[in-house]
Write a structure and sequence with these properties.
Blueprint lengths: L7 H12 L5 H7 L4 H13 L19 E9 L4 H12 L4 E6 L6 E7 L2 H12 L5 E8 L17
Antiparallel strand pairs: 1-3, 1-4, 2-3
Helix pairs in contact: 2-3
Length: 159
């Protein structure tokens, strides 16, 4: 459920932190026209509200040997909460999967995975994904080139 009580200043803080999560509070406060103490208080409140869920380093996939991005649609044999929980738990245990969505349509789950090469992809597919008992089908699409793999959420457009 969206929290619409966050104002323009909170959205400015969120925008700045999405651009640079390591920005010093003094610089952040200056960028959003607040006193440093007020800025820190607001940032801590955004964290406490669960709006800011964490901070992390973004790595270049190719430079660390994970240059192959694949999107995998999974179908499961039975639609139940129990099946969904089991599949989700299995997927969460696979480090190569960097995103997982429950979807509607032809597939039940849509995954984004990163691997080093086709042999690694084959291992992921055969030894991990198709080994999940409820999974009946997997369809893969390979990214040729990534134009945008992450991006700041458009918080400025929120009311």
């Amino acid at each position: 459920m969206p929290n619409i009580s966050h104002d323009k200043t909170d959205r400015a803080i969120l925008t700045q932190l999405q651009r640079d999560g390591r920005i010093a509070n003094v610089e952040l406060a200056e960028a959003v026209a607040l006193a440093p103490s007020s800025c820190l208080r607001r940032t801590k409140a955004l964290e406490a509200d669960g709006i800011i869920t964490g901070y992390r380093a973004e790595l270049d996939r190719t430079r660390i040997g994970l240059g192959l991005t694949v999107f995998i649609s999974l179908k499961v044999d039975q639609h139940s909460r129990e099946t969904s929980r089991m599949v989700e738990a299995s997927i969460l245990a696979i480090p190569a999967v960097v995103a997982c969505h429950v979807v509607s349509g032809e597939a039940d789950f849509l995954l984004e995975a990163v691997v080093g090469d086709l042999a690694s992809y084959e291992t992921l597919l055969l030894d991990h994904l198709l080994a999940i008992p409820a999974v009946t089908d997997a369809r893969s699409t390979f990214a040729i080139r990534t134009v945008l793999s992450r991006g700041p959420l458009p918080v400025d457009s929120l009311v």
